[in-house]
C-alpha cells in the first residue's frame, strides 16, 4: 500500500507519458519490425478512436463518420505525396485541416436537423467513401487504390522505417496530451454537461450548437492525422481500408476501451490490433468479432476496460486509506457573498399555450433586486413554464420579459444565461463522472472566457481562469455547507445534496438573477435552514431571487413578495401577510374554506 500511496502522489499524466516514451524507444530496446509495425498500426487506430471518444464519449454525439475523415486525411496525404510534397509535417497539417473541414461541413446539417440526423449523415458519409473515390478515379485510382506515393521526408530527410515509427509515436503522444488538456479543462466539463443535457448546458451559457459542432469537428482532426500516417505506412491506400468494417472496428474499440476516457482509445485500439486483427482468417468474421467486442464493452463492462482500471484504482485507494470517507462536515460560519449587480425583472402579459392547453394566460410579475419573489400555486398552474419562459427555454406567444434594460423574450437560453440569469431544476440536473467541485465550477462557463486553444496549450490566461473557477466553486460550496464533499462524484450524492449543489452552481457565476425551482423539496430540516440562510445572504448581496416553492412555511419565511398562479393566471400578489389571507389563495392554493383560515395559518406559520 505504501507503493500505491507513493504512486498516487505523482501527477496522473506522468504515467501515460512514461508509457509513451517506453513505446517510443522500443526499436532501440530491440523490438523487431513486426512488433513495431503492429504498434504503429495500433497507434494510428487509437488516433481515429480518440476522435470518436471526444464526440461520442464526451459530447454525446453518435457520429460514426471517423472512417470518412480518416479517408479524407489519407487521400490528402497520398495526393500531396504523388505531387511531390513528401514532407510529413505538411501532409499532417493538410490532412488534419481537410478532415476538420469535412467534419464541419458534414456536422452543420447533421446537427441542425437534430436528433439522429448526425448519426445518419455520418453513417452515409462512410458508405459514400468508395463511390466518391471512384468518381474521382482519375486522381485517386478509384477502386484499384492510390499508388505512386514517395517515402515521407522530414525537413528534406527521408524517413526510414524506424524514423517513421518514432514520428507516429510522437504524433500520438502529442495528440493525447492535447486531448487530455482539453477534456480536463472547463471545456471538457462543458462537453460532459452537453452529453448529460443540452438544456443544462445552455442554462450555463454554453452555445449548444457550437459546442456540439466543436466536439464533432475536433474529433475529425486526429482521424485526419491518422489517415496521413496510414497512407505513408505502406505508400498505398485503397477504398476497402475506409469502409463500413473499419467504421465498426473504430466503434468497437471506442466502446471496449471506454468511450468517456482519454486513454480508453489507446487500450481499445491495442486490444483490437493485437487481438483479432492479427489473425489472417479474421477478415471473414470481422463484423461478428467487432459486434462481440461492442457487446462486451458496452453491455458487460458498461464503461469499457478503463472502467475496470478505475474501479481497481478506487479499491486500492480505499485500501490505502486515500479518499475513502469524506472528511467530516465543516461548519462554515460566515461565507461572504460578494456584492451582486442584481437587476429588476419585469414580466408583462406573458402568454404560452401547449396545443390547446393555455399554460400561461397574460402573466405579469415584478421582481426587485435585493428581494425574494416567491411564485406559488397548485400543480400545473404554470410556475415552471414561467421560469422556462424567463430563462429562454420556451418562446412567449405574447408578452415581454425584461431584466434591467435587456429584453429576454427573444433570446436563446444560452444568451439569457450569459445575461446573468442562473437557475436550478425541479429534478437536479448534473453531469455524470464529474466531481462536486467540477460540477459547481461548470456554472462559471460563460464567465472570464478562456478559449479551447488556451486550455489545450495551458496558457497563462487559461490557468488564471481555471484558478478563479476553483476558488469561486470552493467558496460556493462552503456557502451551502458542502466544502467537505468537493472531491466526491456529484451524481452519487443523495437528492438533498444534489439540490444544494445546484444552488452552489447557480451562485458561482455572480448572477444578476437566480431562479430556484422547488429547490427545498427533498431537503431535510438542516438543509432547509441552510438553504434559507443562503437565500437571505444572496438577497442581502443584491441579487434578484425568484423562488418557485411548495413549502409554504419557507415561502412565508423568505419572501418579500408572493405571486400566486392558478391555471396560468396571477390570482394574487403582494407581501406575505397580505397574500396569505387572500380568499382565493386560501381556497385554490391551500384548499381551505372561508372560516377555517385562522387555524390553518396558525399551523402553517408554526
Ligand atoms: N413542454 C410541455 N408540453 C406540453 N405541455 C406542457 C409542457 N410544459 C408544461 N406543460 C403544461 O403546462 C401546464 C403548466 O405546467 P407547469 O409545469 O408549468 O406547472 P407547475 O405549476 O410548475 O406545476 P408543478 O408544481 O407540478 O411543477 C400543465 O398543464 C402542463 O401539463
From TrEMBL:
Protein's cellular compartments: Cell membrane
InterPro entries listed in its UniProt record: AAA+_ATPase (IPR003593), ABC_AA/LPS_Transport (IPR051120), ABC_transp_permease (IPR001851), ABC_transporter-like_ATP-bd (IPR003439), BCA_ABC_TP_C (IPR032823), LivM-like (IPR043428), P-loop_NTPase (IPR027417)
Keyword Nucleotide-binding tagged: yes
Keyword Transport in annotation: yes
Entry membrane topology: Multi-pass membrane protein
CDD domains with a match to the protein in the record: ABC_Mj1267_LivG_branched, TM_PBP1_LivM_like
PROSITE patterns assigned: ABC_TRANSPORTER_2
Cellular component GO terms, alphabetical: plasma membrane
Pfam families recorded: ABC_tran, BCA_ABC_TP_C, BPD_transp_2
GO terms for MF: ATP binding; ATP hydrolysis activity; branched-chain amino acid transmembrane transporter activity
Keywords linked to the UniProt accession: ATP-binding, Cell membrane, Membrane, Nucleotide-binding, Transmembrane, Transmembrane helix, Transport
Designated name of the protein: Branched-chain amino acid transport system permease protein
